[in-house]
Structure formats: C-alpha cells, structure tokens
C-alpha cells in the first residue's frame, strides 16, 4: 500500500492500541509510546540544542548526523520507559514533513525499518498536525470542532478542525513565523539559541509599552500574520541605540524584549479569538513552541474567556517538538484506516490543509 492508502477491512486498528511515535523533523530526536491516542506511556527527547548553539541556529548537516547517532537509543529508551516491547505495539507513526529533509529521512527510515521487521502498520504524520494533537494528550474531554493557533519557530497558522483529520487553513504568516522573529531579535540581544525562552525571561522586568513597535497587517480584515516588519523595527531600534550609546544598556534590552513579546502576543491573541468567531466554534487551542510562553497563555486565556471560549494549551513540555504528539496524531490516522507503505518518503514542504 502507498502513502495515505486506506487499509483493508481486516486491518481495523484497536481502540486502545499502543502507537510508537518518532519525530526528527528539526533538531530534536524524539520517540514516545501513547496508548489509545491519549495516554502518554513514555516521551523521550534527545535535544541537539547544545550542538547547534555555537552556530546560532540549526545546521541541517549537523542535525541529520546527530539524529543518526541517537535515534535507535531514543526509540529503545521510549520502549523501556513505557515498559513495552516492539511486539506489544499496534502501530508506528512518524513525522514525514514538513522539515529538514536529511533529518526527516532518519525518522522515516527508522519507522519503516521497525514496521517492516515487526509487521506493524505504519502511518506518516504532518508535523503541524502533530503539534495540534499535543492538546489532546492531557485533556480527555477535548474534541473537535475547534480552532487551533499553531505558533512555532517554523510556523504561524490558524486552522479550523471541523472534525478529526480535517484541517481548514484560516490564516498564516505571510513572511516570518512568530518564533523566528523572536529568535532573531534574541540573537542580536546576545541571548543565544533558541531565543524565545530567554527573551521571555528578560521581558519579565521590562516595560511592554516602552518601545513603540508595529503590528503587522493592522486594520486589515485578515486572519493572516506578518512579523517581518516587527522584527525589522526591533532590530533597527537596537542598532540605533548601539550607535548612539556604544552598547545596549540592560534596561533598554529588558524594555525592548517586553515590547516585542507584547507586540507578538497582542497580534496572536487578537487573531486567534477572531478566528474562533469566524469559524463559529466555542473551543480554541494553541500549539507549537511559542505556546509555552506564559504571557501568550495568559492573554489568550483572558481574551478567549471574555469571548466565551473554552481555551486550552498543552503543558509546556508538549509545546516544543516531541514524539508523543506524533503518536497521538498517528493513532487517529490509523483508526481512520490510513496506512503508509514502504514508499513513505520525507516531504520537506508538505502542506497540511491541502490534505483534505
Ligand atoms: O515547536 P518548536 O519546538 O519547533 C518548531 O517546529 O519550530 O518551536 C520552537 C520555537 C522557537 O522559535 C523558540 O524560541 C520558541 O518556539 N519558544 C518560545 C518559548 N519556548 C520556545 N517562544 C517564546 N516563549 C517561550 N517560552
Ligand atoms: Zn515543531
């Protein structure tokens, strides 16, 4: 059977089935075991952050080599932590796009080898879809229809999920992802990589109203985003301070961090609540690495609450890349009868909404 093909009638996937998830799309080698799509049995992540830090960002060549070195040990650790053997599994799910092609290939090849060796059903998962499903892992009552804001280093998008497996794109960034803009400014502030968490810490003591910064696409009737103007304004502000003062005083860095974070949070929260209204749903969920940001969580809770929405975020540990979310999304694909064949390939620019 080929990618996305339906299984035969005899292949019904068990309701409580154990799924091994594998994620290697960027710089985390991860494997996890999830039971029945919702119950986390193990979640192992080997982060490569230290290997990329000296370069100030992810180096694709380094990432794929690191995945190769670690993935087998990470899968073994996920099985051991869950207390299961390969033969106890009901299926294998793997991220096959979007992402870095060399990195994706390591996960896809590992998943195919395991599925072939143990005659297990295999399914490919979209990385952003997996981020969305992270919300289902700690909220047993959460069900579509809902709207999801996915906000990470590579993506900023709003999806309407009328039901499991259907994704309607409501809006997306026209240039930088929100996390990318935060990371680039954080780098100029000398906060290292990835910059989002360090910028959040620095912003705690700053004044969010101190530096006037633009809101991309303000006044437009759109659910799209634009963060490149905001990023450029923040970088030019820092440049002019540096030229004038020779360095960036700590209080200026704090104020800029707080103002930038607030500009991002303000836009994300406003569009997310507007998207839920436009789709006519009562549930709003948030996913992706930037969803770990406490200021974003508080503001979306506040505005969502005012709009009568039920708002949900995954725990911070499931916001950034992990394989539990892949296993969860894979479970629902397997239950729908989807199976991938050994022709499953890495697709670096895999679209989500067009998969309907
Ligand atoms: O989902 P993720 O691990 O990888 C991608 O798919 O991109 O997201 C990583 C992004 C980075 O841009 C990182 O700076 C950002 O999420 N991030 C945060 C926080 N934690 C991670 N941004 C703001 N505040 C945080 N606490
Ligand atoms: Zn991600």
What's the short version?
Helix content is 42%, strand content 18%.
Count of domains:
2
Spatially, the strands of the biggest sheet line up as 4-3-2-5-6
Proportion in helices: 40-55%
Backbone CA Rg: 21 Å
The arrangement of helices and strands along the chain is EEEEHHEHEHEEEHHHHEHEHHE
The global form is globular
* Sequence stretches where pLDDT stays below 50 over 5 or more residues: 1-5
Q: Bound compounds, please?
A: 5'-O-[(R)-(carboxyoxy)(hydroxy)phosphoryl]adenosine, zinc ion
Estimated share of beta-strand residues:
15-25%
Mean pLDDT across all residues, rounded? 93
Strand-helix topology:
Layout: E1 5-6, E2 18-23, E3 28-35, E4 39-47, H1 49-53, H2 60-82, E5 91-97, H3 101-118, E6 122-126, H4 127-133, E7 146-151, E8 156-161, E9 168-172, H5 178-188, H6 195-203, H7 228-245, H8 250-279, E10 283-287, H9 294-306, E11 310-312, H10 316-319, H11 324-335, E12 338-339
Parallel strand pairs: 2-5, 5-6, 7-10, 10-11
Antiparallel strand pairs: 1-12, 2-3, 3-4, 7-8, 8-9
The structure holds 5'-O-[(R)-(carboxyoxy)(hydroxy)phosphoryl]adenosine and zinc ion.
Residues 127, 131, 152, 288, 321 line the site of zinc ion.
Describe, in plain words, how this protein is organized in 3D.
The protein is α/β, with parallel strands linked by helices. It has 2 domains: 152 residues, ATPase, nucleotide binding domain (Nucleotidyltransferase, domain 5, 2-Layer Sandwich); 135 residues, 2-Layer Sandwich (Nucleotidyltransferase, domain 5). Helices cover 42% and strands 18% of the residues. It has 11 helices and 12 strands. Strands 4-3-2-5-6 form a 5-stranded mixed β-sheet, with helices on both faces. A 5-stranded mixed β-sheet has the order 9-8-7-10-11, with helices on both faces. α4 packs across α11. It starts with a strand and ends in a 17-residue tail after the last strand.
